[in-house]
Amino acid sequence: MNLDLVDRRILDLLQKDGSLSSNEVASKLNMTTPPCWRRIRKLKDEGYLQKQVWIISPEAMNFKVTIYANVRLTTHDKEATTAFREQVQTLPEVQECYILLGASDVLVKVLVHDIKEHEDVFYNHISQLPGVKEVTSSVVLS
Hints:
- Strand 2 and strand 3 form a beta hairpin.
- The chain is an alpha+beta fold.
- It is 37% helix and 21% strand.
- It is built from 5 helices and 4 strands.
- The protein has a 4-stranded antiparallel β-sheet.
């Protein structure tokens, strides 16, 4: 599917606010609702729109510290990285996990209430997962 300007504007609007109805999107684009709805349906069918979610505010949930942990694994094969990713994503503090090429094998985003909680997550969970060789954490300032 070739995306035209209207499709791109629809994607932009829905990415900023996934709760917009077809009618609201059409109104913002000075379109009538039926063609707008058809375009949105086609964008969904073609896989451009994957899912609609609500993003929970970390501050409202009292998560004050964001940590990015760079993890080096003892082995770098697909089985080891997949096993690590599946296990680390079971931790409720883990928000995102990426397998990388480069100096680190995995990048993990962790949200915690305070540094003490991160210490617990690090020592008792992440560093204890099978295959972990080294973990280097960075605390987000802003």
